[in-house]
Write a structure and sequence with these properties.
alpha+beta, four-stranded antiparallel sheet, 8 helices, about 25% helix, globular, binds 2-oxoglutaric acid, binds fe (ii) ion, oxidoreductase activity, iron, DIOX_N
Length: about 350
């Protein structure tokens, strides 16, 4: 198992002006260096009330009876509830499935969820939809800034992520990691178990909302060390809610030939938290932003990406199939849906995604 190192210091980016090329360059630098950065609450599309309300719904759902949650158990289209130990994000290294519960919401259509909702959430359909929409809006700002950084048309990514033009693989996810007081964690062994196994995300970008005092996320540094990610970095003490942590997923890394990094991360029970007199449950909200399913992952027309490819060589490109820029002549590009299907098959053992 890799060693633990000092907490990572990631840049905090203000996305209030998504058309500022200097911000685009700063974001690109963070995405290429760490694969992770924060965006502060100021430039996001959320108020503290939006975030509190969404966490409230999540707590309400996870506290509901198991029999109710069972009515929306996760299906091969990646929507629904997965119980404790159901998901194993790092099957090669985990002896037990993840110490977490999760609830995934896929696309909404005409304001309606395209999946069964449990009784605890049935009357909150429009709130959940609104929150997912706000996530999508904030992702549009980020994708615009990344396009500016790459010196391509600002709408290159956003036009391919517009849910109005077709189904997408985007998922809003509620996550619950019980504290050490919970019977569900009685078997947890430090250094053997994890709350969420080491993995990279599958989509374009991921937004992560965390609560103060509920730590656990770590990222793998290039030196192979696990670095805790502070929930509230030094610069943002006075913000109304902790900054949103953003990371690059496998698809965007593939699309940019590995220039943007899809960094491996995991969630643990920090020892200090286990020994604390007052250990807390950890709740997070995650939005996995994906392009429209039919999007062809054509090479990104960016001289920055081309320069990176020339420097590293196609062989160094990441992901499934080596990177969008090394498409063999006569072959058609992968679609976003095909890219996602290959990743889900590896995680859940599902052979088909019928989203
Ligand atoms: O809950 C967290 O802190 C991270 C969750 C995560 O990485 C994921 O669900 O992909
Ligand atoms: Fe993740």
């Amino acid at each position: 198992m890799s060693d633990l190192t000092a907490p990572i210091k990631l840049p905090v980016i203000d996305i209030s002006d998504p058309h500022d090329p200097a911000v685009g360059k700063a974001m690109l630098g963070a995405a290429a260096n760490y694969g992770f950065f924060y965006v502060n609450s100021k430039g996001s599309d959320f108020s503290a009330e939006d975030v509190d309300h969404a966490f409230g719904l999540s707590e309400r759902f996870f506290a509901s009876p198991a029999a109710e949650k069972e009515t929306c158990r996760i299906t091969p289209n990646n929507r629904g509830w997965s119980g404790m130990h159901t998901e194993t994000l790092d099957p090669e290294h985990q002896r037990t499935g993840d110490f977490k519960e999760a609830m995934n919401f896929g696309d909404f259509k005409d304001g309606k969820a395209q999946q069964p909702l449990p009784a605890s959430l049935a009357t909150h359909e429009s709130d959940i939809h609104t929150f997912a929409n706000l996530c999508n809006k904030t992702c549009s700002r980020i994708l615009t800034l990344l396009a500016l950084g790459l010196e391509i048309p600002p709408d290159f990514f956003t036009s391919r992520h517009d849910p109005a033009s077709g189904p997408t693989g985007s998922i809003l996810r509620y996550l619950y990691y019980p504290s050490i007081y919970s019977p569900a964690t009685a078997s947890y062994k430090h250094d053997e178990d994890v709350r969420a196994g080491a993995h990279s995300d599958y989509g374009s970008i991921t937004l992560l909302f965390q609560r103060p005092g509920q730590p656990g996320l770590e990222i793998l540094t290039p030196a192979g060390m696990w670095a805790p990610v502070p929930i509230v970095p030094d610069q943002s003490g006075a913000d109304p809610f902790p900054p949103i942590l953003v990371n690059i997923g496998d698809l965007l890394s593939y699309w940019t030939d590995g220039l943007l990094k899809s960094t491996v991360h995991r969630v643990v029970f920090p020892l200090a938290e286990q020994r604390s007199p007052n250990p807390r449950d950890r709740y997070t909200l995650v939005y996995f932003c994906h392009p429209v399913d039919a999007t062809e992952l054509v090479p990104v027309p960016s001289r920055v990406v081309t320069g990176h490819r020339e420097k590293t060589g196609a062989a160094a490109a990441v992901g499934f199939g080596g990177g969008a820029g090394s498409l063999e002549p006569g072959k058609r590009p992968l679609t976003a849906a095909e890219h996602l299907e290959s990743r889900l098959a590896a995680t859940y053992g599902f052979t088909k995604v019928d989203a």
